[in-house]
Task: structure prediction
Amino acid sequence: MPRGAAHGAPAPRGGHAGVPWRDDRGAAVAESTMVMTLVVLLFAALLQAGVVIHTRNVMIDAASAGARYGALADRNPEDGVQRARELLSTGVPGQSGADVAAELTSQDGVPVLRVTVSSSLPGLGFLPGPIPVEVSGHAFRQ
Result:
């Protein structure tokens, strides 16, 4: 028989004798607020990481396309640099100010054009400052 029932008083709430009943009203609101904050922060971090990866991929594509274009027989390295800048400005807004350079080198005696794109990507929310990125594309000179 629960304590207090012998004297006609109702049994304590909570299901256990002698354990005071706790008021859990409003706990779901606080809990969901804390969980939603973490979910929103995680989503924002994933979104920013996706933007950084996309920007880096566009930079790689622009460097490779610029190298292929500048390595054509009727083109020079500056044409490749110009082509890479055009692709950067259309592919990612705000990356038109990236440093683009071309260099003629040789690999096993074969002339190779290397186009290098250097830029700073915006930092992630939890990382301070910009993230420096340098990518390059190569093509055999025709």
User: Anything to note?
Assistant: The two ends are 97 Å apart (CA to CA). Helices lie at 27-70, 77-91. The mean pLDDT is 84. Residues 27-140 form one domain.
